[in-house]
Amino acid sequence: MSLRREATYWCVSALVACAPRGAAAQAAPAPRGLTIVVTQLPAGTPAGAAVFVAGTFNGWNPADSAYRLVRRAGGTYALTLPDSVRGPVEFKLTLGSWARVETTAAHGDVPNRTFTIPADGAAVDTCVVAAWRDSTAAPVHSTAGPTVAVLDTAFAMPQLGRTRRVWIYLPPGYARSRQTYPVLYLQDGQNVFDAATSFAGEWRVDETLDSLHALGDSGIIVVAVDHGGAQRLNEYMPWAMAIPRLGSGGGQGAAYVDFLVKTLKPYIDAHYRTRRDRIDTGIGGSSLGGLIALYAALRYPDVFGRVLAFSPSLFVNPEIFALARTARRRRPPTRFYFDSGHEEGASEPGLPDHVFVRSTNAMLDTLAAAGIDTAADVRSLLPADGAHAEWFWSREFPAAYLWLFRRGP
Predict the structure, then answer these.
(1) Residue 227: which of 292, 164, 174, 145 has the closest Cα?
(2) Quick one: CA dihedral 314, 315, 317, 319, positive or negative?
(3) pLDDT of amino acid 1
(4) Crossing angle for the helix pair 390-404 and 205-214, nearest 10 degrees?
(5) What does the pLDDT look like over 153-164, one tens digit per residue?
(6) Among residues 253, 260, 258, 315, which one has the least CA distance to residue 283?
(7) Cα–Cα distance for residue pair 107/134, rounded to 1 Å
(8) Which residue of 139, 167, 184, 258 has the fewest C-beta atoms within 10 A of its own C-beta?
(9) Beta-strand relationship, 122-128 and 33-40
(10) Nearest one of 241, 77, 125 to 67, comparing CA atoms
(11) Strand pairing report for 221-225 and 183-186
């Protein structure tokens, strides 16, 4: 998935159906950027239906009012994306929810639509929607196993004045044992266990851990917190976005991490058989989730001793490097696991070349200068085929887990 998955909710200009009449009237400026035009909707689409576009440029929000297409004369629908959205994008069309997303004529899943917007000027992508997913049909099959449960659909986040769905994975045999377990806190909970709640694939964390348990692994508890949709950028960035073309917002990361440390972790420790020490408490995530995971470990080194950062978007909050300079090697040492594709962000318009490689390497240098033994306590991988996508993070998770939570040196 493109880095523009991180882009937030831009303001968008409505298309003008016709120029005003009269001698003094001026022609409306020609739209710039990509105009998405839907020339045909499926038979049976409700009259006056609201059609939306969800994609890498708006957090894949299926009902974002700023990305509702405008019905034009002749029955077509159209929307021009903000001029700042450039380069490769992915998107799908919906009727306002993933339960009513576009499908094939046989009601099968369709791949994301893709388009590369030129660096300047206008472009048009013409679309035909074959069918909509039937909202009365059976829901998408859940892939979460019996070891996964929803802890709460509306867990209170007093530091932010919000609620959030929280998932929990308990190792096989948990109910029959008296064993205590390490805990790993993961972000973007929609994508951790269940394909039915993920818009871009899942990490298969439960399947991985169940398989490792069957091979003799002692097990771990995983707590996964859903991202906040429109609040995702705000909560996963401790500071304001440093690259305006990728979106705006940020600055609520400290409050989000306080929620994890001061509200969620005490609840988990009080209700489950956990190992509460820092060396048995991990935090992880991907992309912005990787950024906030690293921030949490640097801000609360007495709480988190295991850090998983898949494709961390460090460059959107360069203040993280100043915080990393304050890190100190601890006994036992904190372990850091970084993993990004070597070509991630290699040619993203408006970003430094190979931005993930460069920012990760800069973080390794920063941690080393702060006294972290990067040879022993840090692992950083840059596989050539790595991508900014759930399938990649799913593939890399088993090795990351085993290295982070191994016992001994």
Answers:
(1) 164
(2) positive
(3) 45
(4) 40
(5) 999 999 999 999
(6) 260
(7) 8
(8) 139
(9) parallel
(10) 77
(11) parallel
* pLDDT 10s digits, 2-46: 444 444 322 222 222 233 434 444 555 556 789 999 999 988 888
The count of other CB atoms within 10 Å of the CB of residue 211 is: 12
Q: What is the dihedral of CA 160, 161, 163, 168, to 10 degrees?
A: 40
Tokens of 271: 């209700």
Tell me the sheet residues that pair with 162. 157
Which two structure tokens, joined as six digits, stand for 263? 């509200």
- Do residues 190 and 380 lie in contact, with contact meaning Cβ atoms separated by under 8 Å? no
Q: Cα separation of 289 and 293, whole Å?
A: 6
Domains defined for the chain, CATH in brackets: 3-132 (2.60.40.10), 148-404 (3.40.50.1820)
**Bridge-based pairing state of the strands 306-310 and 335-339:** parallel
Task: Report the residue count for the chain.
Answer: 409
Using CA atoms, how far apart are residues 214 and 42, in angstroms rounded to an integer? 48
Instruction: Tell me the pLDDT band of 75, cut-offs 50, 70 and 90.
Output: confident
pLDDT tens digits for 111-170?
A: 889 888 988 889 999 999 999 987 655 556 889 999 999 999 999 999 999 999 999 999
AA identity, residue 84: S
DSSP classification of residue 261: I
Q: Please state, in angstroms and rounded to a whole number, the distance separating the CA atoms of residues 98 and 81.
A: 21
The most distant pair of C-alpha atoms in the chain lies apart, rounded to whole Å, by: 84
Do residues 232 and 252 lie in contact, with contact meaning Cβ atoms separated by under 8 Å?
A: no
What's the rounded Cα separation, in Å, for the pair 352 and 246? 13
CB neighbour burial string for 167-190, b if at least 16 within 10 angstroms, e if fewer: bbbbbbeeeeeeeebbbbbbbbbb
Mean pLDDT to the nearest integer, 54-78: 88
